[in-house]
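Q: My labmate handed me this sequence with no annotations at all. I'd like to see what the chain might look like in three dimensions before we decide whether it's worth expressing. Could you predict it?
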Amino acid sequence: MKIDEAVILLGGMGTRLLPLTKTVPKEMLPVYDVPNIFLLVEEAYLSGIKRIIFVVTEHNKDLIQSFFQKDEYLDNFLKDKPDKQPLLARINKVIQKMDFQYVFQDLKGTYGALYSAKDFIKNDNFIVMYGDDLIETEIPLTKSLIMEWEKDHKMQVAIKDSKPLPKVGLVELGKDDCLKNLVSIDKPNSGYILHGRMLINKKIFTVKEALPKHKNDEYYLPYALLHFSDDVHCFKYHGKYFNIGEKTGYIKASIYYAIKDSNNKYDLLTFFKEII
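A: Here is what I predict for the chain of 276 residues:
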């Protein structure tokens, strides 16, 4: 019953970050000093996940796969540069202790992306991570979801209060913070929105034929979860959230992680004051 498997949905083309994403997949854009996808994988690693299934496209697979494998040439190049070796130690530790698999997305939307991976998921319960949602919490959010699941064995979704509230996609909570509905801003709501960290069960794949198609024939995962409302617990997390699939969120994330490095903090803050 241990949760040690995660599916990361990376099917988008990054059109909101054009023209940069014409040649560089959005998952490989740097957040300070690492590709943003590494921060998601590291969160999974710190939460006890041993196996990652990436749902990818022809556009991003090769670069992601290249990053998450041992680089003999680079390792040999750095043998005589001991001052540079620690720069890769954080990444190599994760690569050595995790297994990675790559699946191409067949259906559109977040549910479509997950459905494409269903035959590759080994366990009944697993983590789902949205590639656009970069989240930092004191305890890795994936680990918190696993801890919540261990209490009641319900599926878990991460929610966070939001200001300003979006027009759609707000969570309506039921008894014991179960997921009752997804509503628009003019309907009774909790003031929380659902973010891209979930712990779900394979039974999610049984409702495909009952799901509505949205724009461009997309199937959305949150609407599949509504079929199991009483068995889906909403976990209210506290932390930093960045939508790195759009320019402002990506820039905010880059600044935030750069300032976290104490070696650069003073210089950057001084620069910000100057340009403001």
